[in-house]
Amino acid sequence: MTLLSSTVEFTPDPSPAERILATAHDLFYRDGIRATGIDRVIAESGVAKKTFYRYYPAKNDLIVAFLDYRHRNWMAWFEDAVKRHGGNANALVPALAEWFGSDAYRGCAFINAVVEVGGTLPEAVDISRRHKLDMSAVIRTLLPAGSRTAKADARALAMAVDGAIIGAQFEDSPEVALKSLARVVKAITDTARM
């Protein structure tokens, strides 16, 4: 899967489970979890209702599978993107610019999921928390080695990334969010060097 398109890519001949997950991924991310009914996922994935329920007995099962799938793929993309852009904290801005500039960009699937279903689906909160901790761990690897404040700095940068993700959803252009993130990155990296 590439985060810069709206279509999940599977094998040339995807299984029914893969088609269901790919369809749910695109619909949940683009239109929202609550706004996407199971009948729509079934129709757009081209599977029979019985087949759908064999793989996902309830919508909550599909939501959890969607979040797990999104987590694995987003993290793979994120790690690759920051490496391609220099492998240090400054790589956060151009990496996120790639994502924010995509026509498929709809913010953070995990923040969106917690807002939509977090009160009724604790698993969504757990997966989202793990996602944010894993993102923070990757960010920590971008900071200078040996810093006594690396853990706190990584968490601060992760919060700034989340703020930029949300800001990019509301602004006419993601540039404001990216410039704000760049300022936070500079402040933290300048302090870490001292």
From TrEMBL:
It holds the Pfam family TetR_N. Gene3D superfamilies: Tetracycline Repressor, domain 2 (1.10.357.10). Residues 37-56 bind DNA. One of its GO terms (molecular function) is DNA binding. The keyword Thylakoid does not apply. InterPro entries: Homeodomain-like_sf, HTH_TetR, Tet_transcr_reg_TetR-rel_C_sf. SUPFAM superfamilies: Homeodomain-like, Tetracyclin repressor-like, C-terminal domain. Keywords: DNA-binding, Transcription, Transcription regulation. The keyword Signal does not apply. Residues 14-74 form the HTH tetR-type domain. PROSITE patterns: HTH_TETR_2. This is TetR family transcriptional regulator. It comes from Caballeronia sordidicola.
